[in-house]
Amino acid sequence: MTLDLLKEAVLANRAKSGEAEIRHLQNAIYLCEDEGIGDDPMVVEARDFYLPRFTARNRFLESFRREDRQMIRACLEEVEGTPLEQFLHVEVRQAAVVLDYLEKVDALQRQNQRKNSQMVLSGKALSELRSYRKPPPLLLRIVKATLLLLGEIEDKTDDWKYCQKMCTPTGPNSLNRRLADFEPENVHVEIVARVREMLSKSRDGVAHPDIDIETVEKVGAGTALVFYVWAMTAAKRSSEIQRTNREKRGFSYEDVIRPANRRRQRELMTSQSVTAIPSHRIY
Questions:
Q1: Which of 71, 93, 173, 279 is a good FRET partner for 157, with 20 to 30 A between their CA atoms?
Q2: What residue ranges in the chain does DSSP mark as E strands?
Q3: How many CA atoms lie within 13 A of 55 on its CB side?
């Protein structure tokens, strides 16, 4: 019976190595040891082979979720030159991708700060953006993600004419004004999850950037890059704030947060913009 529980715990960790699954495996091992069967080959394998591997994999996944460079590098150093490196070859490769991605985004942010990125969204740049009768798919995807953070649901932004209207360069509801007034702490977690999904592909619950920044630079006369950097930075900042708040309240940030589908977007937004949602509704 106890060995059955151990087998079940190993299978659960193969499917997903989260903190809860790892604790389940640890408890199953302890139960086997308490029953005097700690030397059973299945128990030895679970304790000496599976547990350290699943634990290391969970640390990698957590470092990706947090987008924590120091944590990612520590994970790489921990497995380098050990049998874990081969077992976690997918995570090791992904660590290199995420580190490269974070470095590029930071470099672009520094570049835009030096150039005063608000100047890039001049009336001329926005007019050029609005001049597209049918925008390139990548540009549309990035603009839709940006507008979703600002409270415009996908049911509306499917219509490019509506997006054009939302990208007005002047007036009290101009795009620049809305970007300046944006408050990342007030964006619902499911909206943030959807934006990140739109700007990346998801595999095994981890975001894997699939938009090449060099490609984005070439789309929309460079305007797409400004939207992309802003949206990714805003979503990242919102995630950081929400993670801190959730942990203060005793929630695990590992809890699955489903990206808001269209019906859910309508429920969350109602007639208000996303930044008008009170902070107590974030959770």
A1: 279
A2: 201-203, 206-208
A3: 13
